[in-house]
Fold this protein.
Amino acid sequence: MSDYHNVQEVKAIDPAIAAPFRCILILRRKHTKTAKNGNPFLSIELGDSGGSFTANCFSDSAIFKAIEKMDEGSILRVAGKTEYYNDRFSPRLQSAEQIDLDEAEAEGVAGELVETPPETEETLWQTLQDAVAVIQHPQLKETVERVLEEVGDHFRVCPAAISMHHAYRNGLLEHTVHMLQAARALLPVYPQVDPDLALAGIVLHDIGKLEEYEGDFAVKTSRIGTLQGHVVIGFRVARKAALLSKLNPDLTERLEHIILSHQGEKEWGAAAMAATPEAVFVSMVDNLDAKMGMVQRVLRNAPEGDTFSDFLPGLQTRVLLTQPDKS
């Protein structure tokens, strides 16, 4: 049995006790901030497959000097004591050292470091393939298959975001599959939406994220992601595949429009407002699954006994964690 706690175990410790703990975790985020007294401090996020927590490291501490030199994505052995600030878990870290993956494996925790969806990668990929097989229009189907043939391996593992929703390994695949499942259930309700275009648009709507993000244990925005963003990148990927598949100009334009408008609002990153039945449909299904993905993740990672989650920026609230009383 490992001598180390995972994130869920640390968060489950009685809040009334300042208990010591040791963990092996991924340094997911590191930001330098300035305190009210003008001194710098580090705000860091540490996590494993079961969740994450944030902690502050102040400039007069040895741990500040240690973590300041470490890159995001590093594997850390940390020790500290559990503390809470304004009812939020905010542990006091006392030591940190960087280790490699071999040492994490030797400690028996390597398999617990990377968060993944509840469904296996193979199951999700097969569900996506089944949905693509439903597309009837030959050139539209070929367009989607051409993209997947080129980027499939990367698609299977890429996260869907850096922090907001499905922000973990296989997250983009999970998000896309759940959108496809929701869409196939809803399409009979909206006969004005062309099923082929909707399904193709869902598969390709976030395809630009494969170039927008980079990194293994910690994901960050790439150079092209900063300069262009996944909407523009995805537009280019879809257009190239459509031209090679000889998709007609009308369907090409409509498919591109789904990608350009799927963010829903221009302030959220959309290049255009959704102006076709399929684009409106895809943007709404995207928003639905993004928000429900946040709910699903917080529910499965919640420490036992908690009533509310931490504040979720994507939902602008905390989530009630208890089941409905149906007695």
